[in-house]
Amino acid sequence: MAYFSLFLSLLFGLSSLAAAFHRFEDSGASAIDSARMMLRKYNLPEELFPVSFVTYFSFDKEDRAFHMRFETLCYVKVSDEYLWYGEEVNGRVMYGRIEDLTGVQSKVLLVWLPVRQLHVDDAKSGYVYLDVGPIYMKLSASAFQSQLPCHNDDAGVFSLVS
Length: 162
What we know:
The protein has helices at about 1-20, 30-40, 140-145, 155-160, and strands at about 55-60, 65-70, 75-80, 80-95, 95-110, 110-120, 125-130, 135-140. The protein is an alpha+beta fold. It has a single domain (about 25-160), classed as at5g01610, DUF538 DOMAIN, CATH 2.30.240. About 25% of the residues are buried.
């Protein structure tokens, strides 16, 4: 009887472990396509992140947590604002919003501050609101579509826009 309960415990433990591994989306799509699909599914602009530089992407369907790795860190200019994307970005996605965001910063005056969360009115025609420390920034969603190319140093961004 003791062997049977030990067998059931082991079997239950292995099935739980297997279920945890299968929580991540694995559609066979590339990391870039998977990141784009997630953003579209949750009504977020595809251009919100420099997805063409994504080398790894995972998404947990249960708690909607995602993890992206990029080829390099990236500086971009969106409207008149500068954004920095680290080599790894994490967050939890909901319809029209991302919370618990890490790996993204915005330049406010002369200081880079972390972007903690963001949300959109409408992915196609509305605005993207960034929670940057003590302030909220409002950017046109279409401005993300016309962002300057990604640069891996801030000097490249600033020389490009000056």
